[in-house]
Amino acid sequence: MYKKDWWKIAYLEGTVVGITQPVVYKGSEIDGLVEGTIHYIGVLPEHRGQGYIIDLLQEATETLKSIGVWRIFSDTDINNLPMRNAFEKVGYSVWRKN
């Protein structure tokens, strides 16, 4: 489940840099809180390596925290080292490595 205002598009001088789409799982409630995830996050290739992924991930994380989640569960390919590093920089824990 999502709300359109949770989606964020990042711009740099009027040019799209990236997008994020946080969502929550239906039926995941525990004590009135839901489980969330970063359904989609990405930075356009020409803007990668400049730290925008950190900004997008922080924004999506704050959105989920603001609606009340008991856990944010997200994943990435084990070989996607830039995304794995971004998750760790924002404070996510590595739960499983393979």
Q: What number is the mean pLDDT?
A: 92
Total helices: the number is: 2
Please report the first level of CATH classification, the CATH class.
Alpha Beta
What is the first-to-last residue Cα distance? 27 Å
Q: Report the strand count.
A: 4
**Can you tell me the overall shape?**
globular
Named CATH topology? Aminopeptidase
Which superfamily, in CATH terms, is the homologous superfamily?
Gcn5-related N-acetyltransferase (GNAT)
Q: How many structural domains can be distinguished in the coordinates?
A: 1
| Main beta sheet | 4 strands, mixed
What is the structural class? alpha+beta
Helix content: 25-40%
Bin the strand percentage.
Answer: 25-35%
What CATH architecture would you give?
3-Layer(aba) Sandwich
The neighbouring-strand order within the major sheet is 1-2-3-4
Radius of gyration: 14 Å
Task: List SSEs in N-to-C order.
Answer: EEEHEH
* Low-confidence runs of at least 5 consecutive residues: none
Architecture overview:
27% of the residues lie in helices and 30% in strands. It is α+β, with helices and mostly antiparallel strands. The longest helix has 16 residues.
Relevant terms:
single chain; 98 residues; alpha+beta; Aminopeptidase; four-stranded mixed β-sheet; 2 helices
Give a quick summary of the entry.
It is built from 2 helices and 4 strands.
SSE layout:
Elements: E1 8-12, E2 15-24, E3 34-43, H1 52-67, E4 69-72, H2 81-90
